[in-house]
Amino acid sequence: MKKKVISIVLAGALVVSMGAMAGCGSSSDDSGDTTDTTESAAEETSAEAEADADAEADADAEDESGVGEYDLSGLDQTYTLTLTQHDPENSATGTFLNNFAAAVEEASEGYLTIEVYHGATLAGPKDTYDYVLNGSADIGWGLQSFYADTFPVTEVFMLPLIDIQSATNGSQAIWEFWNTTDYMDEEYSNFHVLLLHTNCQSAIETVSTKIETLDDLVGMQLRGNAGPPTDFITNLGANPVSVSINDLYSNLDKGTLDGCITDWHAVNSFSLDEVLSWYLDENIGVSTYFMVMNQDSYDALPEVLQQLLDDVAEDSLKYTEVWDQYEEEVKEAVADKLYNLSDEERAKLEDVAQQTIDEWIESMDAAGYDGQAIYDTAMECIANNQ
User: Is the pTM higher than 0.85?
Assistant: First the structure.
């Protein structure tokens, strides 16, 4: 389900209808008791005003939460879903998903509960797709970049140095892209999509070398996600190394890696600041995330709970600000190790980024997509949500 319709209780319409009926009764009364008629009209007006105020308050509350009211009277049993994710519970992801699960339980009045398995306790980072597909988990949260060649269109939001300004900006942009185009339909056809979003920006983080010029990157062993981040590293003259996020700390610590390109939230959540010395803060790019559901698990829910789950998931876009909060806090904590390139070197970095973008567009064209159209539409969505 793409375009979500939020349920609204039209209390105001009911009040207007009752008021109109009362008015007709008064006009046909020829008893001549004007005092009673006046008092009755006043009471009706007051009641209508109070009801209108209540309806307006309900509408305001709905506008704030993004979730409407649901008729749960027909439910005769409770439902429990499992959700797997690989980040620690005390991470931005953990906070995000705990908030989502709590909102679902509250909106459903306990009829729908989501058990969140944090820290890869149910499925590993690269197992999430299969676990949800075969029903071992009902819902999975993970990174598209862990599955090479599976989400080619989604990669447009992982391109380097595009103008994503925050996690909330990127998340709203990719969600708009999903809801207003059919470009990504095929790559998510095995699932019911609850939400697509992004994290905050990434830096180029290094263990010992401060990157003063792009030449300093040549020959370095850098970890980056698959897809455009890997291509970008290659175009910089460095060597991309595939390492699981859970193993990143140990590889940096023992010198297998010279550095990495990863987001500020991961620096904190996986204690990477203990082994990193320098942070080149040039807004290299963001990662994309999915929250997808096993289609059979979704279909097994009553329709009212399906709608509720979709609404709460979409409303959870507001929780993506937690990634921006992490970025701000981590940057403040490592401020003495944070730096930027000179204008001349920044221009060179932008040239490498453009090369990576051009190559991505060409590769999409070769695969039968309209790469330029996909790229242009994605940039429009990013601009629309800044």
Answer: no
| pLDDT for the residue 376 | 98
Chain segment 346-374, per-residue pLDDT in tens? 999 999 999 999 999 999 999 999 999 99
282-295 residue pLDDT tens? 999 999 999 999 99
Tokens describing residue 49 = 């005003």
Give the burial class of 22: count Cβ atoms within 10 A of its Cβ; 0-12 exposed, 13-18 middle, 19 or more buried.
Answer: middle
Question: Does residue 27 or residue 358 have the better pLDDT?
Answer: 358
Q: Cβ(66)–Cβ(311) under 8 Å?
A: yes
| Distance in angstroms (rounded) separating the CA atoms of residues 70 and 57 | 17
